Amino acid sequence: MAQQQDALLATTLDVIGEVYEAAANGTWSRFLNAMADATDSEGTVLWLHDAFDTSARFQDSESSFLCNVRMEKGFLKSYAEHYTHTNVLLQQIDAVPEGSVLVSSSMLSDREFHKTEYYNDWLRPQGIGYCLGGPVLKRTSVVSMFSMQRLVSRGPFRDRDLQLLSAVMPHLRRACLLHKRLGQLRAQQSGVLATLELLPNAVWLFDANGRLLLANGAGRELNARRDGLWLDGNGRPVAADPGEHLRLRRSIDGAIAAGQSSVDYFEGSLGISRNSSPVPLQVTVYPLRNEALADGAAAAIFITDTTRTALPESEVPRLIYGLTRTEARLATHLARGDTLEDYCVANDVTANTARTHLKRVFEKTGTRRQAQLVSLLSRSPAMWHASPNLQH
Fold first, then answer.
1. pLDDT (tens digit, 9 = 90+) per residue, 33-73?
2. How far is Cα 267 from Cα 392, in angstroms, rounded to an integer?
3. Coil, helix or strand for 213?
4. CA 165 to CA 74: how far, in whole Å?
5. pLDDT digits (tens, 9 = 90+) for 229-246
6. Using CA of residue 369, residue 374, residue 376, residue 377, what is the dihedral sign?
7. 200 near 310, Cβ under 8 Å?
8. Using an 8 Å Cβ cutoff, are 122 and 78 in contact?
9. pLDDT tens digits, residue range 277-301?
10. Residue 74: CA atoms inside 13 Å, Cβ hemisphere, count?
């Protein structure tokens, strides 16, 4: 008995490990196959059921954890087209709590179940006699379902199968939520990186070791020119002037340290001399908290050639700090010297709304007071174009 319990525990831990791997890497078929193997199931599936109209979906762009293994496409198609509406096991699913484990034999007697169209015309032709599963996530009427089917020849699901699924269900729910959140973050990062590529300003992102992680088009062009500022063979920035080079490297190291600590804000703005023009390149170094722009990114530098480029006024603070357009608009007004009241009048918003937005700006920029915020944003390349009096 103890040996069986140890074996069940080992299997449970292995499956839970697979479910979190699936959340992180999208390997849901591995998790489903692991569950099928552990319970002698014919097939396993993560799918969506709408309790309002009893429709079913096996693919969905917003819920990319949907997956199935060992299921014939023809049967899935016929289920979505018709048999979802005859599935007597899901008639009361909208009243079942998330994470519940349901087995067909406890929901309906075999005698009654075998009289249904769902059993005779859909399950029986596949040789399936038993179902086990439950609702993973519920959003309004849409239920994310997990289910396993077992052949008649293998007999009913065992107590150990119910124990396994009961232990896995809370983790499956968290993993599905995590997978959706990671998908949203990846999409957001993709959009941000695409925007960086379109910017006229050069942008270099560095990892925690101070080495280049990513450069946008303007950044690659700047490096190729080797005009006062470029990247060495290890991806580290080099300034032609030794003093400027030392200050730049110290700024990047300081930004990386600030991004990894609770420092309120970081001072990192300097000019870099070049041969092609008496006007220096304007370089602003930003700490990146929580890898804001890309995985592994710890610091970013924006390089502005004021003789060639002009950046939309609020774009840099919006990208760097993850501000919404409304929050970036408010921050830009304040950096230009406007009061909160000026902003409210110009944008037709209430003082309470503006204060709420300002609180979010403080949280995202790591500042605590309006003066700190203005000091931080005044070093943005966007501000050099908008308000020359803000330059340092």
1. 999 999 999 999 999 999 889 999 998 765 578 999 999 99
2. 11
3. strand
4. 27
5. 999 999 999 999 999 999
6. positive
7. yes
8. yes
9. 899 998 988 888 765 567 788 888 9
10. 4
For residue 120, give the amino acid letter: N
- What strands lie across the sheet with 299-304, from one edge to the other? 212-215, 202-206, 299-304, 281-287, 269-272
| Residues near 215 by beta carbon (within 8 Å), at least 6 away in sequence | 202, 203, 204, 205, 223, 231
Q: How far is 56 from 192, CA to CA, in rounded Å?
A: 34
Residues 145 and 208: their CA atoms lie apart, in Å, by 41
Residues 107, 104: Cα–Cα separation, whole Å = 5
pTM score: 0.56
Say which residue the tokens 């050639």 belong to: 305
Q: Render 70-85 in DSSP notation, one character per residue.
A: S--HHHHHHHHHTGGG
Strand partners, 50: 142
Could you read off the pLDDT of 96-130 as tens digits, one per residue?
A: 999 999 999 888 888 999 999 999 999 999 999 99
35/209 Cα distance (integer angstroms):
41
CA-based nearest residue to 67, from 184, 128, 145: 145
User: What domains lie within the chain, and their CATH numbers?
Assistant: 2-185 (3.30.450.40), 189-390 (3.30.450.20)
CB neighbourhood size of 207 (10 A): 18
- Kindly give, in sequence order, each residue whose CB lies less than 8 Å from that of residue 194, ignoring residues fewer than 6 positions away: none
- Rounded CA-CA distance 124/121 in Å is 6
Instruction: Tell me how far apart the alpha carbons of residues 44 and 112 are, in angstroms, rounded to a whole number.
Output: 24
Residues in contact with 136: Cβ distance below 8 Å, sequence separation at least 6, in sequence order: 46, 98, 99, 143, 144, 145, 146, 169, 172, 173, 176
Per-residue pLDDT at 262: 54
Residues linked to residue 353 through DSSP beta bridges, in sequence order: none
Phi, psi of 133 (to 5 degrees): 175, -155
Query: Are 32 and 46 a contacting pair, CB within 8 Å?
Result: yes
Closest CA to 159 of 2, 32, 4: 4
